[in-house]
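Here is one chain, start to finish.
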Amino acid sequence: MRYVLAAALMAAFTMSAQAQETTTTEPTAPAAPVPASSCPAFTPAPTAPNGARATDTQMNAAVAQYEAWRTQAQATADCRNAERRAINAQLQARTAELTAAETSNEASRAAFQAQLDAYQARQNRRR
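Its structure:
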């Protein structure tokens, strides 16, 4: 009985070790780097003054600073959106180009295969 128990334990440990050794994880592809933008960088929003303690002059200056920042941030966002649209257009053009090439390649393959089939049929008739 001891031998059976020892054999069972040994088998369990061996199977556990094999399972650990054979288990692999697929490597994940690294994230594609984001190309540099030709647009200005986004800047952080200005800090609002303490509304409970700010004077009229401080609040008016803060509002002017915020409006200037908002205008600049909107211009940057518009520029980045234009870049995104251009990249999407390029992606669509490349996808169409690839699809056309694959269609052409498949037609060429089929035509070539038809000629191979005709050649083989001719060879078979001579035998």
